[in-house]
Amino acid sequence: MSWKTRGLQHIRVEFVMIAREAEANVSEACRRFGISRKTGYKWLDRYETAGLDGLVERSRQPKSSPLQLSGDVVVDLVKLHDDHQDWGPKKLRARLRRDCSCPDGRVPSLATVARLARRMGWTETKGRGRPPLPRALPTEPLSTAERPNRVWTVDFKGWWRTGDSRRCEPLTVRDLFSRYLLCLRPMAWRSTEEVKQAFLEVFQRYGLPDIIRSDNGSPFACITGPAGLTRLSAWWLSLGIRPERTQPGHPEQNGGHERMHADIARVIESKPAATLAEETLRLERWRMEFNTERPHEALDMKTPGDVYRCSPRRLSDVKPYVYPADFERRLVHRNGCIHLHGRHVDFSAALGRMEVGIEPVGEGRWRVWFRDLVVGGLESQNGRIRRCPAAKSQPSSNKDCNPCPDNKV
After folding, report:
1. The domain containing residue 80 runs over which residues?
2. N or C: the chain end with fewer CB closer than 10 Å?
3. Are 351 and 336 in contact (CB under 8 A)?
């Protein structure tokens, strides 16, 4: 006999009557009815407490449901999703908690919000996928951002065309510590002057960072220039900003910036505006939403605007760099030439109109500095001065130098 047979209440009554007899053995009665001792004692306790009514089958519905969402909370979540369709459950829950729109201040758990998102079709269940590939490390350790304005990251978002066939390629500048998006400005072309003007406006508004990290593309870096400098990165260096570059072919070293580009592609690029002017307004609205409304998991679900503070270093505070007294100071001509000992030496157009310091390191050999960075060397041979790698303290053989075009006199 078991509890699954018909007349369940009648069987329970029969079990209780037998088990309550004076000479009855409860364990033997439980074995006779095919139940555990725990179940037998449970029905005996219920009978002692409520009599025959205690043997009636009770509803197993929980008295409370902590995972249940109220109608008002569901409506608020639906409204948030309609306004921010690219947000996931974490950001929706953080925004709901920030707005304090839940009854009694009880915010639903992340699992509850995620379950609602799946039920409403806002998200899709993803498989485990392939294991991540090993990431390459940079040739030099990248700087860490322990405070705002320590490291800024910069890149170009891939271009697309608006409805009027205009090219739109946004320049994006972001603070690494706070994730604050400093610039989201469409560019027609990657010209140095246009990018420099955009950075000038950013510097005037937010101040100067310590480091700007970029990839190795134009106009941020040049593999043939001294120390990889371009006119843009040389200008950064003249303001006391150190350029830093990721390893070629490894955008994952600037992964947070690339992740932001993916959001722009999904929200803006996928549905281009009719004109470039409208696209510019859309990008600026998206930037403000990204900075002030969108919670960020790495910031403990705060917004970048809650964390970022402008830099105390201002453009007006930049002073001319002073080279050591034993250095020869030279102004690089616009065409990239240096006038030294009666000769014009081809050096680098990236440093045009910039002052360099020339340090003598041996007979007919010099090391060229741009502020506190060694950008190359010069060597005198057969009455000519030509550019070579950074000069050592002792003269070296001719094979240590890279040939360059004839000097202009």
Report:
1. 74-118
2. C
3. yes
